[in-house]
Every structure is written in structure tokens, then in C-alpha cells.
Amino acid sequence: MKLQQLNYLIAIADNNLSITKAAEKLYTSQPGISKQLRLLESELETKIFERNGKQLVGITELGDEILNRSRKIVHEINHIKNITSVANQSDSGNFSIATTQTQAQYVLPKVFANFHKRYPNLTIDLQQGTSDQILTQLQKQEVDFAIASGNIDLGANIVKIPCFQWDRTILFPHEHPLGDLRKIELEDLAKYPIVTYPFIGSAKNSSLTSAFRKEKLEPNIVFTARDADVIKTYVRNGFGIGIIASMAFSPQQDRDLLGYSTKDILPRCTTWLAFNKNIFLKKYMKDFINYFAPHITSEQLSQYIHQDYTSSLQLANSIEEREREKPLPMHQMWHI
User: Fold this and answer.
1) CATH for 93-162+270-333, among 3.40.50.720, 3.40.50.10210, 3.40.190.10, 3.40.50.1440?
2) pLDDT of 330 above 80
3) Which of 9, 165, 195, 326: disulfide with 268, CB 3.0–4.6 Å?
């Protein structure tokens, strides 16, 4: 078994089972990849891919396990190769972070302003997407860090650090009937169309919809967008009332809209930072965590990194216990 064969195997899986695309990605020939795949399957005495003639149409159950272990092997080998260069070039290189539009626009600018002063030679690659897209990038090790919010199981191979909490804000025009109410309840929101962020996975797992259903109400969500400014635009155009992160609403810049905090009617959201537990945390990565969540001590970070969780469920329970014992700070406490 050769490392090259494992790289070919991963490339085929990541390119929709297309050997041609895998060859293009690796700058090699299609016959060469096909030959190495046959040699690997022959050595292992098993079929990794399901075939229809010469075309690959699926991954066998055993092949899926081989693929997962191959990813770990290749990752560890790359990690070993990088140790020396990391030690010698700790202040330069490429730092990739996947995050949501809200975090990228309203949270990270001030963090990066300070971080960039400390590491001016570091190239920062900031990629935006939905929480599901961010998780996929993280699991495929396409980015170093992921920053997002929401109740989502990242799996046992991911270190997930809760960083801060935030409330949602309800948006509506000045002339909207909600503006006449002294106190807005979920029952009032359920009467109107709602424009808000996309859900992670499915609507039934959302803390927003769960809060409504707990009161035996059904929210009328008519439009979703990942960009808070897009949500504001559609609220202004009469699509419905908006529900966005509180940090994305500015009474000065959004003077034509009224904002109402949901702190008394909807659960708070938690923003987390995550990375693969096998990643070598460079000094600038640890410093970034400190800039992003300064309340997390070096000792706490070490506990997150080195604690051995037997399952993703145990990981989630451990985080919830920490949050109950010591509530996370609100976003405004240090970023704004």
C-alpha cells in the first residue's frame, strides 16, 4: 500500500467518483490512477468502489471505512511534514477560516484588526457559507477554523469551543402593528410572515421553531437568507417581519426599521469556534482564539484540545454542563 494510492482514493471520492476529475485535480493521468486503484483493491482483496461497467457509481461499505481511515493517515502524514516548517515560520503562512456572513461582517472585523497588527505577514483566507457548508469544509479539512452558531453535532473528531452568546432582534417598519404593542410575545409574531436565516439541517432542529412549537404555535417563515442585510431589504419591501442577530441591527443605520430584542421570548444563540482535534495548533492560531474569545484561558483551551471524548454526544453534554456552571459572556461585552 502506497501513500500515493491513498491520495488517489481520496481524490476520486472528493470528485464525485470521477477518475478524470481526480486526475485533473492531482495533475496526473487517468490511466495511472485507474492502475493504482486496481493494485490497491487487489492488495486489500476487496472492492472499494461499486461499478457499472468501467464507471464508478458508489462506495462499498468496507470502502467507506477504508476511505475514512485513509483521510486520517494522509492528514497525519501531512501534519508530520508540516511540523518543521511550522516551527520555523510561525508568523507567516495561510490561515483559513470558514464562517457565516453575520460573524464575518459584524464580529470578526475588529478581531482581525488587532490580529493583523500582531501577524502582518500572515495571509488570512475568510470563507463564508451556511453552517452546514462550514461544517463540511471543516470535516474535509479544507479550512483551519470554523466559526458559526447553532445546535449542531460536529462529531467526535472536532474540538468545539463555545465562545459567546447573543440574542436575536425582531425587525419591522415603523408603521407595523407590532410597534403599537408594549410587549411582544411569540403569539404576536406567529400572526405575521417571517424573514430570517436558513436553518441548520432542518427546521425541526432550530431553537427558533422549537420555541414556537413549545407554545403550540407555528411560525410562518416565508423567506430565508444568510445575509442580514438581505433580510432587512426584504422586510423593507413588505415580505414580513425580520428576525436577525442583534449585532446585525444598528438603530442609527437602520433608522427606517424598529428593532425589538427577543431576550425574553427566544433562547439565546451560542457562537462556537471549532477545529479538527488532530490539527497542530500554531501559535498564531492560539493567539487568534485569544483575540476572538479572551475569556478562554490557556488552561481551558488545553482542556478542550486534550480531553478524550468517547462520543459526540458526550462532547455536547460536557459543553452544556460548562455553560450551566459558568454562563458564557454576551457578544457586546468585549467586541462592541
Assistant:
1) 3.40.190.10
2) no
3) 165
